[in-house]
Amino acid sequence: MNDPLTIAEEWMKEGRDVAIATVVETWGSAPRPVGSHLVIDSDGNFEGSVSGGCVEGAVVAEASEVIAEGKPRMIEFGVADETAWQVGLSCGGRIRVYVERLG
């Protein structure tokens, strides 16, 4: 897998609108460590991982809104929140992800 930060830089040089999602906190056995990144462009293309595939789809959807609105947001996923039936971490952990527009 390519470095997500390098990909983000390349995409921005191409004129794409880009957001980055960063794992800022974990609880339990979260599949990716703090500092892991997922970069997303306005077409929904993405590189990297914040959860090993568990919640990437939901993060891409949130990032699309962040790109459109220009407002960053903090999102949280885990087995005990209201999204548990929509997306979930198979390991049973929880993660908090900060999503912001780049550029």
From TrEMBL:
Pfam families tied to this protein: XdhC_CoxI
InterPro entries, alphabetized: MoCofactor_Util/Proc, XdhC_CoxI
Domain XdhC- CoxI: 11-78
PANTHER family reported in the protein's UniProt record: ALDEHYDE OXIDOREDUCTASE MOLYBDENUM COFACTOR ASSEMBLY PROTEIN, MOLYBDENUM COFACTOR INSERTION CHAPERONE PAOD
Name the UniProt record assigns to this protein: XdhC- CoxI domain-containing protein
Species, as recorded: Nitratireductor aestuarii
